Amino acid sequence: MILLINTTEDKSQIALIKNSKILAQAIFEAELSHSEKLLPEISKLFKLESLQKLVAAGFSLRRQGFSLRDLEAIIVITGPGSYTGCRVGVATANALAFSLDIPIIGINKFEIYKNPRLCQDFGGQAKEKDFFGKKTILKIIQIACKKLKKKKIEKITLPFYEKPPHITKPKSIF
User: Fold this and answer.
1) Which of 1, 37, 39, 152 has its CB 3.0 to 4.6 Å from that of 147, i.e. a possible disulfide?
2) What is the pLDDT of residues 2-28, one digit of tens each?
3) Position 127 confidence tier, pLDDT thresholds 50, 70, 90
4) Cα–Cα distance between 168 and 138 in angstroms, integer?
5) Any residues with CB less than 8 A from the CB of 59 and at least 6 apart, and which?
6) How does pLDDT run across 85-95, given as a tens digit for each residue?
7) Pairwise CA distance, residues 2 & 115, whole Å
8) Three-class SS of residue 92?
9) What is the pTM of this model?
């Protein structure tokens, strides 16, 4: 089972995927609170409601429930997008992958959308509809599988910002 994490925008997406099938998915408004909402939303995917969907989908369970330990890999969308969102999603994915000793695959939106202009303004209707859709998730899985086959996997992944972050300089007090 693979966990997909996308926190690059105000709307965040997480999904559990097995054999190229989306078993459970959550899309939630995060805006400026990615760090508060991401882990509780991941936790919700592993609750009884999702468990029933998995059993109905033919997912055989080794024990009564399932947990993060059932993950085989984590895919994280690394950017470009919200500076804080990218950092929170990537840091969470890195921490989970490290603690579970599973591969992490970072994918940036330029790998998904070959046309960079499609990535610049994610708020556009077509992109939002497509990005959260099944076709795009399948494309993300294909990219991840290619990276796995080519062994292009790191122990950690880094956020992709497209340009240097704009960090304001502190004002002089004196």
Assistant:
1) 152
2) 999 999 888 899 998 888 888 888 888
3) very low
4) 39
5) 1, 18, 23
6) 899 999 999 99
7) 27
8) helix
9) 0.78
